[in-house]
Amino acid sequence: MLLDRYLRLIDQELLPFIQLTSESPFDPIIVTNQSKSWKTIGSGNYAGVFSNDENPEWVVKVYGRNPEELKKEIEVYKKLGTHGTYSTLYAYGEDYLVLKKLEGITLFDAIIKGVLIPESVIKDVDRGLHYAKSIGLNPFDVHGKNVVMNKGRGFIVDVSDFYKQGYCCKWDDLKKAYYKIYKPFLIKYHPPIPFFIMDRVRKGYRFYRKKKKEKYES
């Protein structure tokens, strides 16, 4: 079977040739990939993501830290089932997931490159979040780096924190910025914004939210 062969490729040609390290729990995983048949296509706070030309419609998400979170993400995907806003879980191992590949550009990179973000993308994500809530999940940590768009459609590529409790304001804050800043002032002329500026905005936002939380809890 195709899936069985794919799992053998993971065990024999991917896992022995990659190293996932982390300098800080607040920064993405650093991926070192010496495999000749697997490409690194991304990294996040917990994992690296890889693809193989034998089946380009699938990706492998390999956890580099907090492996206990893997089991929670598996349960999230099982609850989500098949939905147009999310990936689909095909298989999993001790430290990885096999997922449907979601093509597209992240909203973060779209801002940097000056790629238009249509309102339909925002509405797609809203519908996906509403669906997740309706089946008992709690959408958490949804932001510009884990939302991608493709041909005017929006997709959520990371659901690893959907099991958490409490309120996460990141998507609501992003929507406010979209409707109050991006749509009235940027969408018409659509200028690229350098990475260093966006990175400062990201870090500034994180610092602002941290201080606001500390003030609220004090």
UniProtKB/TrEMBL annotation:
The keyword Kinase belongs to this UniProt entry's keyword annotation: yes
Family matches, as Gene3D superfamilies: Transferase(Phosphotransferase) domain 1
Molecular function (Gene Ontology), one example: protein serine/threonine kinase activity
Swiss-Prot/TrEMBL keywords: Kinase, Serine/threonine-protein kinase, Transferase
Name of this chain's protein: Serine/threonine protein kinase
Species this chain originates from: Neobacillus pocheonensis
